[in-house]
Amino acid sequence: MPISQFFPLLFLTCLLSSCGSMQMGGNRSQYGDRPGPQNFSTVILDAGHGGRDTGAVANGLQEKAVVTDVVRKLKADLQNQFKVVLIRDSDHFVDLDDRVRKANRYGDAVLISIHFNHGPRRIAGPETYYWRSDSYSLAKRIQRELSAVTPYKNGNRGLVRRRLRLTRNPLIPCVLLEGGYLTNSREAQLLKTERYRATLAKAIGKAIREQSAAGDAGMGPIPKPIYMPPSKASDRRGSF
Ligand SMILES: [Zn+2]
């Protein structure tokens, strides 16, 4: 190729590639088909539900209130090491897609969405959901640390790969955890205590620190990416 034709092409290629990386915000990725995060600067905490959306209500507990308290405790634990961003800090409703949009303003970050579960009364214990390959290690560490401090672990699903709004749509590594079952009376009694909520927050914090220090090391084979469209409100319930 004559040099006079080569230079405009080179310029165009540079322009296109820089444009592409601007759209993806450097550390962001649509499918999460890459290694897990390490040495990240920011942790985004999403307290599930809020306002008119109470989440699960059982045994005298409201999910929206329990998650708000755990998120505040977790923020206090993490903020000496990370910039901590809260999706909501008061009792108001935030749409799921707005939570994703807010998280997507950050690049060098992970997103943890915190919930508590409801189901048959005998079921107890934590569950952790992820979708992207780059979120597997973080989810596995969170599930492991939560399980280690949870006395009741009856019939729960454990670590689950599922395409949800908060596990598929953010452009950063993201995990949704269910810290236990409000519908299990023994677990609910524990969750009423300040001390147990602090224990859960500490366990989640430990997992986040471990992920930042070690990345995917020691977490075994990372699951292959699955290329599926973003999750939508109209998706059939229970669809993968
Ligand atoms: Zn929930």
If you had to describe this structure to a student in words, what would you say it looks like?
The chain has 240 residues and is an alpha/beta fold. The chain has a single domain, classed as Aminopeptidase. It contains seven helices and eight strands, in the order H-E-E-E-H-E-H-E-E-H-E-H-E-H-H. The strands form two sheets. It has a six-stranded mixed beta sheet with strand order 4-1-5-8-6-7. Strands 2-3 form a two-stranded antiparallel sheet. Bound molecules: zinc ion. Zinc ion binds next to loops.
Shape: globular
- Architecture in CATH? 3-Layer(aba) Sandwich
Small-molecule binders here are:
zinc ion
Task: State mean pLDDT (0 to 100 scale).
Answer: 90
- CATH top level is Alpha Beta
Number of domains: 1
Q: Give helix % range.
A: 25-40%
Oligomer: single chain
Extended strand count: 8
Reported by name, the CATH topology is Aminopeptidase
The whole-angstrom Rg is: 20 Å
**SSE pattern, N- to C-terminal:** HEEEHEHEEHEHEHH
How many helical elements? 7
Largest sheet, spatial ordering of strands: 4-1-5-8-6-7
Query: Span from first to last CA?
Result: 49 Å
User: What proportion of the residues form beta strands (DSSP E)?
Assistant: 15-25%
Structural class comes to alpha/beta
What is the H level of CATH, i.e. the homologous superfamily?
Zn-dependent exopeptidases
Largest sheet: 6 strands, mixed
Query: Spans of 5+ residues with little confidence (pLDDT < 50)?
Result: 1-24
